[in-house]
Write the structure tokens for this entry.
Amino acid sequence: MTLTRRHLLGGASALALPVLSVGNAFAQKALFTVKYGNNLPITHPMNTRANEMAAKINAESKGRIDFQVYPNNQLGNDTDMLSQVRSGALDFFTLSPLILGTLVPAAQISGVGFAFKDYSQVWAAMDGDLGAYVRKQIAASSSLFAFDKIWDNGYRQITTGSKPIATPDDLKGLKIRTPPSPFWVSMFKAFEASPATINFAEVYSSLQTKIVDAQENPLAIIATAKLNEVQKFCSITNHMWDGFWFLGNKKSFERMPADLQEIVTRNVNAAGLNERADVKKLNDGLQAELKSKGMTFNNTEADAFRAKLRSAGFYAEWHKKFGDESWAILEKYTGKLL
Ligand code: X2X
């Protein structure tokens, strides 16, 4: 966070300028220049809503804040940006709870395979006691905090270049990319696949050069990252719901006076709710478009995949790792998982 106008004008040339400047007419007199980074393509609803949010924050603060959006891994990959936001070099960062799990293991609980049957369970949990529990863990065990309303990624589907995934047996030996998270590796090892952790910034090229044959992501990401150009099959597994905590560096945020903190908080949460609606609409409607671009789709039976995870001891292992307290909070919304 750049605190003074002089510093801003002097330092501006050294700053990587935001790809999508929100045309902040007030930038010349900003007291607080803040940087927000993410890993998604500019066309993903996360960035549409983030730029809209930034313009509102700049206007409502009457230019005292210059909120800058850096999309699409412009500041580095997830691993880089996580260390930047931890140190305060980056002020805000949106990150999957499962990748955050490398720093705050308890955060991974929202990604338990096949846990949330539908979005009513997701939002009841994430806007309820489970989200509150995870945010408490984040604040207690790191230099970060998370805003109340988690942003949406969606239900994840498996894509491959070689074959459709119809049953759990089709995952045996499959070289599949997962995000850098012990939880994701654990899930696909339970399926007897061969997971390789790769940051999202490198996924397209890793598929194109066949370093891996498969990956898994919601349709909105498959489409906006153009993964359909390097993947042939998409199997609707809905194996995990995933989101993005909108993370902030505590010390950076606390430097702002209360009135500016309120403007940022209100707009981040409001943008998150709008992003959720956009992502769900996209994920619900993209199959036809991706089919028209050559992808082959198949549906799957969740019970067969859930049974495989159960027989591999996946649920029992993670129940033990998360502990009874958090597992009970999760099951309050999902029902018994074991
Ligand atoms: O890395 C991924 O697959 C992505 C874009 O979905 C996340 O950020 C977790």
Remarks:
- The longest strand covers residues 241-249.
- The chain has a mean pLDDT of 93.
- The radius of gyration is 20 Å.
- Residues 39, 96, 99, 153, 179, 200, 217, 221, 242 surround X2X (CB under 6 Å).
